[in-house]
Amino acid sequence: MTESIFTKIIRKQIPCHLLYEDDLVIAFLDINPVRLGHSLIVPKIQVDYFVDVPVNYYQAAFSLAQKLAPAIQKALGTTRIGLSVVGTEVPHFHLHLIPIEQDRIEGIRTFGNAAVLARQAELIRSVLNQA
Amino acid sequence: MTESIFTKIIRKQIPCHLLYEDDLVIAFLDINPVRLGHSLIVPKIQVDYFVDVPVNYYQAAFSLAQKLAPAIQKALGTTRIGLSVVGTEVPHFHLHLIPIEQDRIEGIRTFGNAAVLARQAELIRSVLNQA
Are residues A129 and A123 in contact, defined by beta-carbon separation less than 8 angstroms? Predict the structure, then answer.
């Protein structure tokens, strides 16, 4: 099996704007965000289809979503977060967390800027670590 | 709190094309399907935002998704199912299960037809009950 880009991130072969990781899951900012704070949660096992993800990885991913969403909201001043698993663009199951209401912080043009992403990730991590 | 349409379905005040139910969750066909087999999984507690759903209801909903998706595929001849929680149209947390690849059964025009929905629900239930 070819390693997915997410497996390469998990193995630290590709850098990411890390938000959280443990033995089962990793979360980081989407490198091509559609909204401020657009984040991904990925199990640390490369399985394409959600149906086939082992239950401990699967439940860990959705459980993290309940913790990460409020941290994104608090850190970035965004409101409600949408959860989505529509993607087939990377054959490695993952959740998108995407703010779906109006952002209070402007910056659409700089969403994908590395320095801006790094700062966002730092803010979100600091809120997660307080929790 | 106003009762959501889903709470009315759960209380049997409004009929549905039932796929599955237990103490925590209910699943039924979407009455306005965007694809053949478009289904909803709803926890039996009226909570708007996924972050706030009690963990047992929340995990039961995602756990059911792993069982229901293969049943829809087998029953209706659809292929991969997408999972989505984007909706804010009903203020009652729910998962959409939507076939995302080409259907092998034709019938776009009749997706919302009550008799067609009833037959689909029957097929999916029969597969679920075999499992």
Answer: no
Buried b (16+ CB within 10 A) or exposed e, A70-79: bbbbbbbebe
What integer pLDDT is reported at residue A107 of this predicted model? 47
Rg, C-alpha atoms of chain B: 14
Q: Is A106 exposed, middle or buried (0-12, 13-18, 19+ CB in 10 A)?
A: exposed
Evaluate if pTM is beyond 0.90.
no
Model confidence over A62-74: pLDDT tens digits? 999 999 999 999 8
Set out the domains of chain A in order of their start, with CATH numbers. Answer: 5-130 (3.30.428.10)
Selected residues 12-71 of chain B with any CB under 8 Å from a CB in chain A: 49-51, 53, 55, 58-59, 62-63, 65-66, 69-70
Nearest to A84 among B58, B70, B85 (CB): B85
Residue among A24, A15, A129, A123 nearest A74 (CA): A123
Here the tokens at position A65 are: 């979503």
pLDDT tens string B26-72:
999 998 888 888 999 999 999 999 999 999 999 999 999 999 999 99
What local confidence, expressed as pLDDT, does residue B123 receive?
Answer: 87
Q: Is the pLDDT of residue B106 over 80?
A: no
**Helix H or strand E segment including A129:** helix A114-130
